[in-house]
Specification:
By secondary structure, the protein is of the alpha/beta class. The protein folds into 2 domains: 233 residues, Rossmann fold (3-Layer(aba) Sandwich), CATH 3.40.50; 30 residues, no CATH class. It is built from 12 helices and 10 strands. The strands form 3 sheets. It has a 6-stranded mixed sheet, sandwiched between helices. Helix 7 packs across helix 10 and helix 7 crosses helix 11. It binds Fe4 H S5 and zinc ion. Fe4 H S5 binds next to helix 6. Zinc ion binds next to helix 12.
Length: 309
């Protein structure tokens, strides 16, 4: 297979674009496409401060690498969740994230749940009602809360995450299976700033997971290969497999599923329900973040319950 740009030897074939590219052209193409998506979706400008949520995985580290290469002011945020499960998952992902930042002289914020709140994600899951077997619900709550907190306290304009098209398509599939109108309405590459929460963006939303893996590899980025041990057997992993089967039969199916959804939404597919029911919000007396609860937010409630035990 030949590179579509220079005729050299292609290292990747992207069937949905009917295009093979060599190493240098692929790296350049992916960076330029990211730049295009950032501009087209009005994600952020060179003048704004971006906080990249990094997990030590390929997507988030690649995103950080791309943003810095494109000249954006992008700092990192790593949240040490305390997930070990016999493979030292969190310790290893933190080590790789720190190595990445140090090698490039980038600014990295580290939030350590143990140091900050005296607990970790598996303990939170066990001691609260959230997720008896899977801690993902507690984990998601912690990540959202801490990302918002750091963005607010350090004055970042925008929060960027490394979600790729496979992630977005799996989420869309799940929301569609349940016709979850509220989630479908809010699923977008850009969520505008609301109630003092920083704007949230997903600059990699148009790339397949395998493209991000190829990018990380070709750029020599060292990332954690293992997925979080709790991701194994999750429904989102299962949906990704299903969508990949579909993709094998019909290249581009994954991409169409997601991009046509965005286009349909723009055309008013959900017009009837565009009056979003925004719950009345209050300030949490403990952490000062907005919550629909009358008293403390669910994050603070969870922490309190655990710290009491
Ligand atoms: S939510 Fe669940 Fe992830 Fe948290 S516990 Fe692991 S798999 S890291 S994206
Ligand atoms: Zn709170």
């Amino acid at each position: 297979m030949k590179c579509k740009k220079c005729g050299g030897k292609a290292v990747i074939n992207m069937r949905q674009h009917n295009m093979g590219l060599c190493k240098d052209d692929f790296i350049q193409w992916l960076q330029e496409q990211t730049q295009r998506h950032i501009e087209k979706q009005k994600m952020f400008t060179l003048a704004e401060k971006v906080l990249v949520a990094v997990s030590g995985g390929k997507d988030s580290l690649a995103l950080w690498d791309i943003l810095v290469t494109l000249g954006y002011q992008a700092d990192g945020l790593y949240i040490a969740l305390g997930i070990d499960e016999g493979i030292g998952y969190s310790a290893e992902s933190q080590r790789l994230t720190e190595a990445f930042a140090n090698a490039r002289d980038l600014k990295l914020h580290i939030v350590n749940l143990a140091g900050e709140y005296g607990t970790d994600v598996p303990t939170l899951a066990k001691q609260t009602k959230r997720g008896r077997d899977k801690p993902c619900s507690a984990c998601g709550l912690v990540k959202r809360h801490e990302m918002n907190r750091i963005a607010r306290d350090f004055g970042y304009d925008v929060l960027a995450t490394g979600h790729n098209l496979d992630d977005e398509a799996a989420t869309l599939f799940s929301n569609t299976l349940q016709w979850n109108g509220d989630y479908l309405l809010r699923q977008a590459p850009v969520l505008e700033e609301r109630n003092g929460l920083a704007r949230k963006v997903k600059p990699l939303f148009r790339f397949y997971e395998r493209e991000m893996a190829a990018y990380a590899l070709l750029r020599g980025i060292e990332y954690i290969y293992d997925e979080c041990p709790f991701a194994e057997g999750s429904t989102s992993t299962y949906y990704k497999e299903l969508l990949n089967q579909l993709e094998n039969q019909s290249p581009g199916a994954k991409q169409h599923f997601y991009t046509k959804f965005l286009a349909a939404k723009k055309k008013g597919l959900f017009a009837e329900s565009t009056v979003e029911i925004i719950p009345e919000l209050h300030l949490c007396p403990k952490c000062g973040q907005l919550t629909s609860a009358r008293a403390e937010c669910s994050f603070c409630k969870m922490m309190e319950r655990v710290q009491k035990k």
